[in-house]
Design goal:
- A hairpin with a 2-residue loop joins strand 1 and strand 2.
- It is built from 5 helices and 2 strands, in the order H-H-E-E-H-H-H.
- Helices cover about 50% and strands about 20% of the residues.
- It has one domain: Winged helix-like DNA-binding domain superfamily/Winged helix DNA-binding domain (Arc Repressor Mutant, subunit A), CATH 1.10.10.
- About 5% of the residues are buried.
- The protein is of the alpha+beta class.
């Protein structure tokens, strides 16, 4: 998933989304890479540990984060 798309939701502050993704990356749950075709674009993907942890989200967060999980998947 492209980070810019994750931060596009007007209901969530861009800084909050960026901070969340950065925190996941620091914990080894997500990986942020630069798109080799467009170096301005950051691509976010879940690591295998991050994918395993999806099932541990509380139900409330699972329902609210469905589109993010599907996009990052």
């Amino acid at each position: 998933m492209i980070l810019r798309k994750l931060t596009a939701d007007p209901a969530v502050a861009q800084s909050a989304t960026t901070g969340l993704v950065s925190g996941l990356a620091e914990k080894g749950l997500a990986e942020i890479t630069i798109d080799p075709e467009d170096r301005r674009t950051h691509v976010v993907s879940l690591t295998s540990e991050g994918k395993r942890g999806q099932g541990e989200l509380p139900e409330y967060h699972q329902s609210r984060g469905t589109s993010v999980k599907e996009s990052v998947g």
